[in-house]
Amino acid sequence: MKKTYNIGVQSFKFFIYSTIIAFLFACASNNVGNTDGSGEHLDDLTLLHKAMNAKHGRTDSYYANLAVADGDYDRAYVLHQKECVQGSVIECLNAYYVGEERALSNYDSMNFAQQLVNSVEISYKACKRNESLGCVNLFFAFEALDDNNEFIKSIIAPSLEHYNDEIIADKALKLTKKECESDDATSCFFHARMLRIIDHYADVEYFVNKSLDLGYILAPFVRLPMQSPQTISYFKRSCALNEALSCRYVAYWLEKYENNKALAKEFYQKSCKLGLQSACDEMRKVKSGDKVDEVGSPIINRR
After folding, report:
1. Ramachandran category for residue 68: left, alpha or beta (phi over 0 → left; psi -120 to 50 → alpha)
2. What is the value of pTM for the model shown?
3. CA angle (177, 181, 183) in 5-degree steps
């Protein structure tokens, strides 16, 4: 999903970067063109797409999200970068938000700019040959233009100036819908995610359910209303698939909104056992507390 970090960029740095974006774009175009014949780079997104399906969403970017949840930003940055270099615009942006926001020592803004331009070009080539993940990444590249981040826009805008956002979005939606109907869980996930970005009230129940039916652990993470019983039911299903973040969110819901601390502790414990350290910490903080009625008021023993 799209991030909303507040990132400051020094004006002199922005001026320098904006003057060399055209150079980066030209280099990326030449690099991608050189690999068009061999298919080395063009196959990267296809391989990533297959890996996301085969691993039910548990690729490097997933473990990067777990690292963020535990505050291990250096590890998160490295993992996001792995998929960034494969041509994932989404993961290049995630690497940027983590690296820039946290001022990580291994984050290099010039290197990032080059990788982001490359990822746009790789995604376009992939989309052109009907690789849906390429079209999806271009969709999110256009979406990043609304981030109100001048540095990001200065990099992406020149790369996208020859592409039509409506055509890209239409192709991405058509390809992912068709592939979802053929049991491609990754496409079900991204189709739902794009629909919810286009329309916050879009009905994505079919796509989320099908993705979960196929064992895809990321299925609920498509911008659903968080304080909704139906959404919680999705997270419970994802937790049953051993997805740690979902288990932690169910635990949080049970603790804060249903005041069921005993059951919350069970979900925190499962999330903890799945490797989420922050859930271990939260589990230890949960106290059983007094018994409560259906509206959360303490039950007073009467004589």
Report:
1. alpha
2. 0.81
3. 115
By CB neighbour count within 10 A (0-12 exposed, 13-18 middle, 19+ buried), where does 204 fall?
A: buried
Under a CB-based contact definition with an 8 Å cutoff, are residues 187 and 173 in contact? no
pLDDT tens digits, one per residue of 13-39: 333 333 333 334 444 444 444 444 444
Q: How many angstroms separate the CA atoms of 279 and 265, rounded?
A: 9
Contacts of 275 (CB under 8 A, 6+ apart): 66, 244
Residues 6+ apart with CB under 8 A from 164: none
Given 3-state DSSP classes, what are the helix, strand and coil percentages for the chain, each rounded to the nearest 5? 65, 0, 30
- The DSSP bridge partners found for residue 298 are 292
- How far is the C-alpha of 100 from the C-alpha of 102, rounded, in Å? 5
- Condensed to tens digits (0 to 9), the pLDDT of residues 215-229 reads 999 999 999 988 788
The greatest distance separating any two alpha carbons of the chain, rounded to the nearest whole angstrom, comes to: 85
What distance in Å separates the CA atoms of residue 120 and residue 20, rounded to the nearest whole number?
A: 17
Weakest-pLDDT range from 8-17, 105-114, 202-211? 8-17
Cα–Cα distance measured from residue 246 to residue 271, given in angstroms and rounded to the nearest whole number: 8
SS3 224: coil
Q: What does DSSP assign to residue 171?
A: H
Dihedral in degrees, nearest 10, Cα atoms 24, 27, 32, 38: -150
Helical H runs in 36-108?
Answer: 42-54, 60-69, 73-84, 89-101
